[in-house]
Amino acid sequence: MKPILKKFADILCGTLDNQAQIDAEIAAGKQIHPYAKHVTDICDHKIVNRPDDHPGIYILEESYYVQPGKTEIELKPLFFYITSKDDNSALLHSMQIPEDIKPEEATNANQDLVFDWNEIEMRPWGPAEYTWHEDKQCFTVDHEDPINGVTFRLVETLKYGELFVMELVHKEGVKLTPYDTPIHYVKI
């Protein structure tokens, strides 16, 4: 694995949540962000029929959300393929989880979960380029994609032990994201 990909995976992978951010918002009188938890890990071992010379790494991110004032947990699994552009940047490609895999089955702990390399496809979004800043010891990205009248903008700062994630969604010029500041994840 290339050093830049190892660095990226070391920062991104693990269990992270924004409980401290939620606690601070509630103490201030109003919860703004959803409670969010990510369980993220490299899942190369779950890819079958992958060519030996296929570079990069695959990552499965289980994203759990509880919206303010609600109790039900939403699971939104995300599947990524990460390559390196050069020694200072990683490219994150969003992959489509095959339709025959139910969201609740797309977890890192699922020993039976398998992705057939011949059946996985890239989503039309991306790739997002994450740049490493040696002086600040972080990756940053500001990536925007317009798809079918919807614009998705991802602004992130990824540091060891914490992630700042802002996802801005606009549809036909109308902002759909209910908050204007990033979700602040801390590694558990």
What this model shows, in words?
It contains two helices and 14 strands, in the order αβαβββββββββββββ. The strands form two sheets. It has a ten-stranded antiparallel barrel. A two-stranded parallel sheet has the order 3-7. It has 188 residues and is mostly beta strands.
Question: How does the overall form come out from the CA principal axes?
Answer: globular
Q: Quick one: how many beta strands?
A: 14
**Which stretches are low in confidence, meaning pLDDT under 50 for 5 or more residues running?**
none
Structural class: mainly beta
Name the strands of the widest sheet in spatial order. 1-2-4-5-6-9-10-11-12-14
Spatial gap, N to C terminus: 25 Å
Radius of gyration: 17 Å
Beta-strand portion reads: over 45%
Largest sheet: 10 strands, antiparallel, barrel
Number of helices: 2
SSE topology string: HEHEEEEEEEEEEEEE
Mean pLDDT level: 94
Indicate the percent of residues in helices. 10-25%
Write the layout of secondary structure elements.
Elements: H1 3-12, E1 14-17, H2 19-27, E2 35-42, E3 47-48, E4 57-66, E5 74-86, E6 89-96, E7 115-116, E8 121-122, E9 128-133, E10 138-147, E11 150-159, E12 162-171, E13 174-175, E14 183-187
Parallel strand pairs: 3-7
Antiparallel strand pairs: 1-2, 1-14, 2-4, 4-5, 5-6, 6-8, 6-9, 9-10, 10-11, 11-12, 12-13, 12-14
Which features characterize this protein?
globular; 10-stranded antiparallel β-barrel; 14 strands; two-stranded parallel sheet; 188 residues; mainly beta; 2 helices
